[in-house]
Design goal:
Elements lengths: L7 H4 L5 E5 L7 H12 L4 E4 L16 E3 L3 H4 L9 H9 L8 E6 L13 E6 L4 H4 L1 H4 L5 H23 L3 E4 L2 H11 L4 E2 L23 E4 L8 H8 L7 E4 L11 E5 L3 H10 L2 E4 L7 H8 L4 E4 L4 H4 L6 E4 L4 H9 L7 H9 L3 H16 L2
Parallel strand pairs: 1-2, 1-4, 2-3, 4-5, 5-6, 6-7, 8-9, 8-11, 9-10, 11-12, 12-13
Helix pairs in contact: 9-13, 11-14
Length: 372
């Protein structure tokens, strides 16, 4: 193991890096970024609370994964939201990392990962813990009992979480919106570094049975703030347009022009991006990788004017904005969405978020803090 005191900068050797991520039990944008960090930084290992290989991206199978030894936290692998009462304890009791640098991919607890003296700690923040600082988004669809329990736990969790944030040597935010949330939550001025687009546009594609090209596409997990229900409701009033939902669609009965395809393999997701008329989303995203992933295939986006979409979407070049998520606004936006987009210009927008540029800046931040 290469310690921080060994001077890898001076010797020209590659720094010894460990990556931490909250939990690896889903295929989301944060998990894509964690995989990109671990791969491009050639991380010695990835530390996480729970790792379920069958539920997250296959690329993690090629890495060394260290999980929390807590048996209790593993009981909640199917829905980590239920693990909130035990995650703080699980992360606090992790064996401290000894390396040149620990890079924490965090939207919850990973920034609490302990380190030994001499290990630079860099946090790449997808969002401060939503259940603590944006509880209105987090508890949508939950029972009054869950809401009351979260309200009772939050004051103590916020105090602990702020101490965890203060333990970092550097904080990076994925968007201007998240940088402002970090400022409000922690009093930390974070550098904005947009995440990379890690989708492989040259990879194999496989059609989705029953889906014909020319649909509007939305890709999201089943969270209230993700807004899939608002889109489905709007498309119910537009039988002339089709919506394909990747992920879990709310409700058991869908309009005939809405297809819920569930979780799909990467080959089918590529095909869906490549053959969509547009990616549509009214989610209040921290950054929101899916419109940029769609852009990488030359597919424009129709997204709400909020959150990270303000950083990722070039209005009129890579997509258009909806002013809100009201049903009538969505209907007007879809019905007036133009054709004839410059596909090369759309791809150039996606190229702004390259993995090479992202990793180069993270390496610079690591080097800056190792030298101190």
């Amino acid at each position: 193991m290469t310690g921080a005191a060994s001077g890898p900068e001076a010797s020209g050797s590659r720094p010894d890096v460990v990556v931490a991520h909250d939990y690896l039990t889903q295929r989301g944008g944060a998990e894509r970024v964690a995989l990109e960090l671990a791969t491009r930084l050639q991380a010695r290992e990835v530390v996480t609370s729970v790792y379920s290989p069958e539920l997250t991206f296959d690329g993690f199978r090629d890495l060394v994964i260290r999980q929390s030894p807590s048996r209790l936290v593993h009981l909640f692998a199917d829905d980590m939201r239920r693990a909130l009462p035990v995650l703080r304890r699980a992360w606090s009791r992790m064996q401290p990392v000894t390396a040149d640098a620990l890079v924490c991919s965090s939207s919850g607890w990973a920034h609490a990962m302990p380190v030994t003296a001499g290990t630079a700690k860099i946090v790449y923040c997808h969002n401060p813990a939503r259940w603590l600082y944006q509880p209105g988004d987090y508890v949508q669809g939950h029972s009054p009992l869950v809401r009351a329990a979260l309200a009772a736990l939050s004051p103590g969790l916020r105090r602990w979480d702020r101490r965890a944030a203060a333990s970092a040597d550097a904080y990076l935010a994925n968007s201007r919106s998240v940088a402002e949330r970090i400022r409000r939550a922690y009093g930390i001025e974070a550098e904005v570094l947009p995440p990379p687009v890690a989708v492989d546009t040259d990879g194999p594609q496989a059609p989705v049975p029953g889906v014909e090209p020319g649909y509007f596409l939305t890709v999201s997990r089943p969270r209230g703030y993700k807004g899939a229900d608002a889109l489905i409701d709007a498309f119910a009033g537009m039988p002339e347009h089709r919506l394909v939902v990747v992920g879990s669609a709310p409700g058991d009965r869908l309009p005939s022009n809405v297809s819920a395809v569930g979780r799909v393999p990467e080959e089918q997701l590529r095909w869906l991006y490549a053959h969509a008329r547009a990616l549509v989303s009214v989610s209040r995203e921290d950054f929101g990788l899916t419109p940029v992933e769609a852009n990488a295939f030359g597919c424009p986006a129709l997204v709400v004017r909020a959150g990270g979409f303000l950083d990722s979407t070039a209005e009129g070049e890579s997509g258009l904005f909806l002013d809100d998520d009201a049903r009538d606004t969505i209907i007007r936006g879809v019905r007036s969405f133009p054709g004839g987009w410059d596909r090369d210009a759309i791809r150039r927008n996606a190229a702004r978020f390259s993995g090479e540029q992202f990793a180069a800046r993270v390496r610079e931040v690591i080097a800056e803090h190792m030298s101190r």
